[in-house]
Amino acid sequence: MSVDVLPSPTAAVACCAPLVGRALTAEEAGDLARVLKAIADPARLRLLSLVAAHAGGEACVCDLTEPLGLSQPTVSHHLKVLVDAGLLRREKRGVWAYYALVPGALDAVAAVLSTAAAPAGA
Hints:
The structure is a single chain. This protein has six helices and four strands. The protein is α+β, with helices and mostly antiparallel strands. The protein has a four-stranded antiparallel sheet, with helices on one face. α3 (42-53) crosses α5 (72-84). The chain is elongated.
């Protein structure tokens, strides 16, 4: 059993939450843009939703192709983009790969985009 986990967007974006707190550095903006680009695709948004709503909060790639109406290689590509962005984690079980949301990853993105004032001392 192998698990692919890359740095989560929590690390990339927590440093700059929320945007109204201070200006982003070039590196922070690049990290955030990479994550936002990953979710700025309708198929990837649907994949995040399908995985999150699946029984047990994880789904096999074999369960995701039919609902999307896309080929398995296309779905696998979109899943790889989401894993590389730190939004999904991948676990290989035999010949199949299972995907689950990285805990807190979407919350971290939402926090960065919040217009709420940063807490004192943040």
